[in-house]
Structures are given as C-alpha cells and as structure tokens.
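Honest question from a wet-lab person: if I give you the sequences of every part of a complex, can you actually get the arrangement of the whole thing, not just the pieces? Trying it with mine:
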Amino acid sequence: MTDRITHEMVTSSLLSNLNTSLASLERTGEELSSGRTILEPSDNPYGAGQIIDLQSQLDGLTSYASATQDGISWTNTASSALSSINNVVARVRELLVQAANGTNNQGDLNTVAQEVEQLTESVKQDANTQYAGQYVFSGTATTTAPYQPGANDEYQANNETVSRAIGPGATVTVSSAISTLLGNGEASGDGKLLDTLRTIVKNLRGGTAEDREALGTTDLTNIDNNTETLRQLQAVAGSVTDQLQTALARNEDMQTSISESLSNTQDTNMAEVSVAYSTEQAAYQAALRASATIVQESLLNFLQ
Amino acid sequence: MSIPTLQGLQTALSGLLAEQQALDVTGSNITNSDTEGYTRETADLQTNLPITIPATNSITGRGAQLGTGVSVGNIARVRNSYLDAQYRTQNSALSNASTQAEVLSQAQTAFNEPSSAGIASQLSTFWSAWTSLADSPTSEAGQAAKDAVVADGKQLATTFNQLSAQLSTIASQAKEQFTSLTGHGGEVEDYANQIAQLNHQIKLAEEAGQQPNNMLDRRDLLLDKLSSLANITVAEQPDHTDTVTFGDAAKPLVEGSTVNWPQALTEKAGGQLGALLGLTGPKGALTAIQTSLDGVAETLATTVNEHLSKPFFSGNTAATLAVAVTSKEVSASTGEAEGGNEAALNIAALRGGAAEQDYAGLIGQVGSEVRSAKDDETNLQTTVTAINDQRQAVSGVSLDEEMTSLITFQRGYQASARTLTAMDQMLETLIEHTGTAGL
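Yes, you can. This is the full assembly:
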C-alpha cells in the first residue's frame, strides 16, 4: 500500500520533521539562554514542585539568618549592659569593704554613700539599655523603660519572654529576666540589687553602730548574693549568644546545600546542553540541506 | 466473409479519443496535485465490442472476433473508505488531545511558575515579612516591618485574585468556543448543511448515471473536517447518500438531505467539542484546578488568622482573598504588650506548611496534566500522519506517476495516429492504384 509515494507525502513529512528538529533546537536554545531546565511545570511536574519547596526553604534560611543576626545583636547589647552592671557591683563591693574597716569618719562614709547613689543610677541606666528602639530588659513591654530614673526603683515592665526564629519551628529566647537581679527596690525589701544598694547608702549615712556593723556583714553578704545572680544571668546570655552563633553557622551550611539541590533541579547543565545544541544544530542543517535536494527531485527534471 | 472497409479508421479513431481522454484525466490529476481533498482519478480503458466474423477458417468452420478499438468505460476515484474511517477516528482523538493541551497550557501559563512573580515566591516573601516583624514588633521601630507584612500580604492576595480571574476567563472562553462552534451559523451546522446538500446532489447525479467525483471529494473533505469537532461515523446508503452520526448526539446529524441540529452533546462526544465540555464540566480539569486553588487560599487564610486576634485575611476563595487589616492594626502578638512576637513567630513557622504544600501539589498536578495531554497529542499526531500517508499512498497524486502516464498516453495517441495513417495508405492503395481499368 505504501508503494506509491506522492510528492505531497514527501513534502509534508519533510516539513514535519524539519518542524520537530527546529522545535527541539528552539527548546534547547531557550534552556541555554535562560539557564533553566524547567521553564514550565509540564517540563518536569515533580521537579517544579521540588523547586517551589527548595526555593521556599532557601528564602526561609535567609530570613532566619537575619533573625538570628538580630538575636545576636540583641544578646550582645544585653551582655554588655550586664557586664557594665557587673563592674558597678564590683566597685560597690570594693567601697563597702573599705567603708567597713572602721577607720573612716562619717564624712568619708557620706562621700562613699554619694558615689554608691550615683552607681545605683548607672545600674538603672544600664537596665534601660535599648536595641533598635526596644528596651532589651523589659520582657515583651519593649516600649516601656524597665526602671525610672530617680527614687522609684519599682520594675515597670513585664516578665514575658522575647524570642527569635532561628530555623524552621525553632526559636530561642533572647530576653533576660533583669527583675530577678534588680528587684523592686527598698520599699519591697526583696534583698535584690537595688534594695541592697539603697540599704548600703542608708547604712553609710546612718552613723549608728548597727549601721557600721551591717556594712561589713549583711550588706556584704547581700552584694555577694546579687553578684551570684548576676553571674547566672550573664552565663545564660552567653549561652544564648553561643546557641545563636551555632545556628547561624548551621544556617550557612544549609543554605549552601539547599542552593546546590536547587541548582541541580532547575539549572541547565551548560556543558551538556551546549553539546546537545551543537548536535541539534548540525542535524537541523543536514535536514535542511537534504530536504532542499529531495524536494527538487522529480521525473520532470529528466524528461525532454 | 469480409469486414467493413473503413472499420480500421474507426478503430484508430477510438484509440485517439480514448488516449486523449486519458491524457485529460492525467492533466486534471497534475493540476490538482496540491488541491485539498482531491482524489486521484484513473481512466479505465475498455475494449470495444468486437465484430464477429463467422466461419473464416475454411477447414474448421470456426468464426473469429475482430477488436474494434478502445473506449473509456469509467473515470474512477481511487479511494479506500476503510482508511477514511480510521483517519476520522484518530483525527477526533487528536483534536480532543490538542484542545486539552492548548487550554491546560493556558492555565499553566497563568500560574507563572516557576518564577519570581508566582504565588510560591510571593508566599515565601510573605513568610519572611513575618519573621522580620518578629524581630521588631513595636509600632515605632517596627512600622516598616508592619508595612511590609501588609504590602506583601496584599500582593499575595492580588496574585491569588488575578490567577483566579485568569482561570475563570480561560474556562469561559472554552465555553464560548463551544457555543460558537455548535450555535446557529457555527461550524457544525455549516458542515452539516453542506454535507446534506451534497448528499442530495450526489443522489441526483448517481440516478442520472453520472459520476460526481468532484462532489464525492468535497463531501469526504467536509467529513474529515467534521471529525475534528467530535467522533463521527459515516454509513453510505444504497442511494449513495451518507448518514453521519455526530458525537453522542441522539439522532444522526445528517440523514439524506436532512440535518438534525442542534442536539445535546456531553464530554463523551470526543473531538474538540468533547474536550471543551470535559474541561469546563463539574468534574473537568479546569474546575478541579480552580477548586484546588480556592483550597490553598482558604488554608492560607485560616492558618494565618488562627494565630491572630484580629483576622489578617478575609475571604475563603482565591477570588475573594484580601488583606483585612491596615498596617497600623497588624500585631505580632495576641497579648497587650507591644514587644510580644509569638504570633509573628507562629505565622513565620507556617513556611513549608499546608498552604505551601497544597500549592506545590497543585503545580505538580497542572504540570502532569499538561504533560500527559501534550504527550497524547504528539502520539496521536504521529498516528494521524501515518494514516494520512496511507491515504495519500492510495489517493494522492504522484507527479512521477502522472508524468509516466502522460508519456504513455501521448505515445498511445501517436501510435493510434500512426495506425490511422497506415489505414489511409492502405485505402489509398485500393483507391488510387487498383481502379485504373475504368479510367
């Protein structure tokens, strides 16, 4: 039945083959110029879903990295404030030991009391440290300063925690509970740092034997207890910083590996596709040349 | 017993006439070699009735028959109706697959994935905006972050709205296309009317003993075209009219010179019309895509809103999804303190969650459907081309063959003319050289 080959059969089959060749050449060219193997979901339905997933993971890592950086800056701000408080406490302890040795007259003690009062203010200032417009020691009430300057020593903010997202479903608490260290001042009699500092000032100025006695005993003990609490806060802040830095390093590793997976899924293998392109180009040219020759062949050419 | 003196001239003349007619047929084939739907014709040459010469042989007494030349008995169309039926079946399937591939490709293009402008990318940006808001949740320092959350949310909602509208447009265009093809003055009616008219004319011509090759070609071409709209079957009746069933319509579309249209069709009609009905039907692919997209929008709205005291999104379909809050009203926390960020953290943790997975699934589904429709199209195209080649092998005009026929018939004509000359010379001998006695 296929013994008869008509002119139209020849031209239509040549044309359809040329179209197929050209279409695949165009497709390969598109892959080369866009650098992508998956231009539409139908090119690779599974791969297209994977690209969406991987791209989202990668975007997520970028945003977690910036949140982690933000957390590190936050805890660094808090740590340096705590260090500064630590220096103050050490200075107060030094003054206390000097004041308690009994050779000082009341005038000397009053001078010391003045310095301790100033140091108390600086502790409150440290507690009011801000990072990016947020009070770092205010729990979630980050727009409220935790302590007011002056006589009122009461903690103004709340004890909620503030967290940063460091990875998919993973958060780290970056806030420090400063009120466990500073407390609510003398009025509350909670024995915390502000109460202790105010009591020390009172004892320095008091002038009685009990006052002098207290300087070397209860006041010193209270300062030491508060130093211990402070060390614990510092340790927590330090460990949070470590945790964030580890997360950041891990995040970078993950970014590298996911970028690689993404690239394997969606990017053109340039070497491979370039070779394919050259091959297809050669094939297309050969087909064109052959078609041009075959189409011209006819018995007509040979009849006189 | 003798034979008529001038019989030889008549025989030679019949040769001249027959060869000339065959040359005409060849000429017609050559000129129509590129005409759509043309079926090559052949002149069937037949021997003329012989003259019986009784008892020429004096010994056996047996007579003989003397040939009186040739004539064209019939100008035949060379066509195989079995291949026609096969072609039409596969052509319906091809047209069905290519319609599906075309419409689904449009839907796929509307999704614009994978790209930085698609929903997937905007969803990702939206989650990142919530992470940023968790870093600075207060109204003073975090206003920029709140603005970003609302702007990204609006962009995302708008993209959902636009995509939904595009999908609706694609579906309504498919419905419009169906209506215009099947409606009054549409292609179905037009083809059916032409076929019915040709049926009528062919019947008359056949009754008059003519061979309406030209009309038969036109009818076959119309049937080929009709087959791309829906499945058809063609039954040739004894009176040479074609009865044509169309898709799953209850009555035949064309019966003799009668047209039964409009009739109801379903997606089982096959061809382009079946595909259009199937895609836009309640269980069709376009409807399913729209429903899945609505599902993604609803999941997104629900999962985000459940972490907030004031709903962020309103609407529960892709078309109605919208941001319900201003950037001043956005809060990173359900608590009263401004610095709380647990809600923002919870929402940021939705990255990679149900909405995103459903969406990625939908993209995979659309991709698979387009791919399978395109694969079907490619395969059927190959089949249709092969069958068409077979048809062409039977019915197509081969110029090489026609050229050969041209020479054959030309030589035949020349030879008949030479026979005529020989007869003439023979008669000349008789007339000029034998009758001198009376001069």
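Two things worth pointing out. The first strand of chain A starts at residue 130 and ends at 131. The radius of gyration of chain A is 39 Å.
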